[in-house]
Amino acid sequence: MSCEGPKQVKKVEPFKGPIEEINDVKMLFSEAALLKVKLTTAKQLRYINDDRKYPKPVSILFYGPTGEEVTTLKSDSGRYDKAKDIYTVMGHVVVINKQKQEKLLTSELNWNPVTKKVFTNKPVTIISQLTGEKLNGGLGLESNQDFTNYKVLKPTGVFNVETSPGY
User: Are 106 and 96 in contact (CB under 8 A)?
Assistant: First the structure.
């Protein structure tokens, strides 16, 4: 017989923090050997389920068919959801389409690298840097990945309209 009492078993919680931390990240996405998207950020945290968090500012460049920079995106932070294959940027999100000279402002934007679509259900503002026109979208936006073709949901705004004589 032993003098010891029953042993207590400690319940150990599984580790939920990042399993990998990478500094000075640069990810390149190409298609048919042509660079399409470049994502850079100061820090990436990877988790056991392969989700990723980008706690520092994120910069993304979208390239056109001939390799020219078409659109730039900057945000305060971001994340990648492996199960959905969706990248999300958050905070002060600013997108500039260099060809159309338009600036998009929102608090959150999602990108699906498979469908090459960008979308949000958050309010958006699009400002023409040429005319100063401002378009607001109360329910969000759907776009191709370089923002050359987009649809604003529930739009409002102030627009310049040319009138013909007699109207």
Answer: no
Which residue bears the tokens 């960008």? 118
Retrieve residue 101's tokens: 């000279």
The token pair that represents 33 in the structure block: 């050997």
Distance CA 152, CA 92 (A): 19
Q: Which residue has the tokens 């627009």?
A: 159
CB atoms within 10 A of CB 110: 18
CB 121 within 8 A of CB 142: no
Report H helices in the chain.
none
Query: Residue 125: what are its φ and ψ, rounded to 5°?
Result: -130, 130
Confidence of residue 3 (pLDDT cuts 50, 70, 90): low
Inter-residue contact 58 to 87 (CB < 8 Å) = no
CA distance 71 to 128: 14
Judge whether 52 and 44 are in contact, CB under 8 Å: yes
Averaged pLDDT, 139-162: 80
Residues 77-122 have pLDDT tens digits of 999 999 999 999 999 999 999 988 999 999 999 999 899 899 999 9
Q: Report CA 30 to chain centroid distance, whole Å.
A: 17
